[in-house]
Design brief:
By secondary structure, the protein is mostly helical. The protein has 9 helices and no strands.
């Protein structure tokens, strides 16, 4: 039985919105804001939200097959998280083919590297990890390639082993 996201999305997306996380991160760095880099806060939030969605897509694709239930979860997550302000507004229907094209053109490793590099705020990285885990668990089993991708993602994001494990346990329970 596949995990139903309808009832669990709020639990998976605990924390602040992508926009708030970016602003908080920039403030901690002492940066005056995203506008100084020539990128509006809205554009930065959209780019990071797309990177979160791409990480979900790549976790789904890592085993060589993307199940309909994984794509459905990704689309629903993007829609629902956009609706409650956690992610910036993204057209999930249009994004999925774009992500598939990028994957086919550039390859999995290059796309994962690009997506993880796009995420700068620690809270957004945790959200991406949590949602990627949600995709891995959506069919109630995690393939070896998905587990390896999640392990690599945790290391790339600088998540401590105990924090990554706690997120996985939490996501598995939802």
């Amino acid at each position: 039985v596949a995990m139903a996201l309808d009832d669990k999305l709020g639990e998976l997306a605990t924390g602040m919105s992508v926009s708030d996380a970016i602003e908080s991160y920039l403030a901690r760095l002492g940066d005056a804001g995203a506008a100084d880099s020539g990128v509006s806060a809205e554009a930065a939030a959209r780019a990071q939200s797309e990177a979160v969605a791409e990480i979900m897509f790549l976790v789904a694709a890592v085993d060589g097959e993307i199940a309909d239930v994984e794509i459905d979860l990704l689309k629903k997550s993007v829609l629902d998280l956009s609706a409650i302000g956690v992610l910036a507004a993204i057209d999930a229907e249009a994004l999925v083919p774009t992500l598939a094209d990028r994957l086919a053109t550039e390859g999995w490793s290059a796309r994962m590297h690009a997506a993880t590099d796009a995420l700068t705020a620690p809270d957004v990285r945790r959200l991406a990890y949590r949602l990627g885990a949600g995709v891995a668990f959506v069919d109630d089993r995690v393939e070896a390639a998905e587990a390896a991708a999640l392990d690599s993602l945790a290391k790339t994001f600088g998540l401590a082993d105990d924090e990554a494990h706690a997120i996985l346990v939490e996501v598995q329970k939802t």
